[in-house]
Known about the structure:
Blueprint: H1 2-18, E1 37-43, H2 49-66, E2 97-102, E3 121-126, E4 132-136, E5 142-143, H3 148-159, E6 165-167, H4 170-175, E7 187-189, H5 190-199, H6 203-213, H7 215-228, E8 247-248, H8 250-263, H9 265-271, E9 275-279, E10 286-290, E11 301-309, E12 313-322, E13 325-334, H10 337-347
Antiparallel strand pairs: 1-2, 3-4, 3-13, 5-8, 6-7, 9-10, 11-12, 12-13
Amino acid sequence: MRYQALILLIIILVFSYAFRDTNVFSQVDHNGIGQQAVIIDSVHLESSPAAVKNNESLIADIQGSIATSQEPLSSTSDSNLNPTVNSIEKNQTDTSIVEKSIITEATSTTNELCVPIQAKNFLVQTISGASILYEKNSQNRWPIASISKLMTAVVALENINQSSVITVTPEISKETDGNSTLPTGSSYSANDLLKAMLTISSNDAAFALADSFGRDAFVQKMNQKAKDLSMSQTTYYEPSGLSYLNQSTAHDLFLLVSYIKQQYPIIFDITRQKTNTIRDKNTGKRTTLTNINEFAGRKDFFGGKTGYIDQSEGNLVSLFSKDGKMVFIAVLGSPDRFGDTAKIVSCIQ
């Protein structure tokens, strides 16, 4: 018996060593009950669409083998009118994954909101002086969905001539699984694609901008920019936000929004407008795009970006002017992102 016990102990020690850095995958259920969750902290792989999808499949396989009771996750787009799934095809790739757990319960709260909100993570912070007014789980990594497009816009402005003409290829249309917001074969200036991406959260526009530069190189620029801005908990795997591997924190998003406000205010000028107009260079046809952000057009709203996929629920970052202060508000993982944000605005003194 002693030898059997010794052998069993050795086996346990071997398995403990092999999985010392591995956590069990799970997700926060829709009843708000916190379960242990895991995100991808660092993956050494290509950022091509095929590779991204394969990464998700690989993670799903790991998740299934370690926690067989969990259902696989699906993706939809940010647009309420044109839901889109991530249809990127699988491909073989070399991977090395380091896992890091998400905190699913409040780690800290600064002050007390005057009304309760439903967002799992939020941050309310002044731009000037960076004074935190309210926060909960602001350092938690979270799938940011189409909020990714803010970084896509920054990289596009820094690396692509805004008057250059870019075509929406059939390959791009396929990636949006037939729910394209821009016609296949249409051509637009980079500036008009920027408008489409920020106004109606067009995934076609995001892919087209990235592909005109080179998809892998573009995503590398996104990650390098995040590093330059000290966004240490942020990772991008593709330019649209369809992949739940695009992750950040409310704190990191504050750094990005502050940079945009200072260096590229045109981004928020676009997102605060009720409508924007783009023109197809091939046909000359003009199309008026109606902003999907419910706050667009409000006098106190100075811009922001929506985001939604199944894994993230509703995300929203916003800039509001309140009593002479410019205030950043991020709500992540909310079933009512606009309602939560409106409640926060009402609480700011």
